[in-house]
Amino acid sequence: MLWILVFVGFLLTVSVTSAAEWAGGDAIMQDKVHELTGGDYVPWFNPIWEPPSGEIETFLFALQAAIGSLVIGYFLGYYKGRKGAIEEAKKV
Questions:
Q1: Residue 92 DSSP label
Q2: Which one, of 39, 42, 19, lies nearest residue 31 by Cα?
Q3: Which of 32, 57, 65, 85 could cysteine-pair with 51, CB 3.0–4.6 Å?
Q4: Residues 60, 51: contact at Cβ < 8 Å?
Q5: Torsion from C-alpha of 29, 35, 40, 41, nearest 10 degrees
Q6: Rounded CA gap, 45 and 29, in Å?
Q7: At a CB cut-off of 8 Å and minimum separation 6, what does 33 contact?
Q8: How far is Cα 83 from Cα 24, in angstroms, rounded to an integer?
Q9: Are 34 and 41 in contact (CB under 8 A)?
Q10: What is the pLDDT of residues 4-57, one digit of tens each?
Q11: How far is CA 85 from CA 54, 82, 90, in A?
Q12: CB atoms near residue 24 (< 10 Å)
């Protein structure tokens, strides 16, 4: 119950007080590098493929995070179950 109140409080705080534009770390750092170098910076390489829209880029990032979470969750569950089975076998 407490975590629900904390979550709702966080959402209210962010939605009411946040007037800033959301931007990714890459965009922020690119702007900072251009500011520090006076715009003379040239990237070493360009992306092989750029998604046609920001929504697709966000979807691919979320898909990557979901797949990574599934892999980590699978192995955590596997090893926890294996440890439980070994402890159960020792009791017998």
A1: -
A2: 39
A3: 57
A4: yes
A5: -10
A6: 16
A7: 41
A8: 40
A9: yes
A10: 889 888 888 877 765 666 667 777 888 888 888 887 878 788 889 888 988 998
A11: 46, 5, 9
A12: 12
pLDDT tens-digit readout, 65-92: 999 999 999 999 999 999 988 888 888 7
Cβ(75)–Cβ(67) below 8 Å? no
For the full predicted model, state whether its pTM sits above 0.70. Answer: no
Alpha-carbon separation of residue 76 from 23, 51, 64, 68, 85 (angstroms): 33, 33, 18, 12, 14
Please say whether the dihedral angle defined by the alpha carbons of residues 17, 21, 23 and 25, taken in this order, is positive or negative.
Answer: negative
- Distance (Å, rounded) from C-alpha 24 to C-alpha 17? 19
What integer pLDDT is reported at residue 54 of this predicted model? 84
What pLDDT score was predicted for residue 1? 77
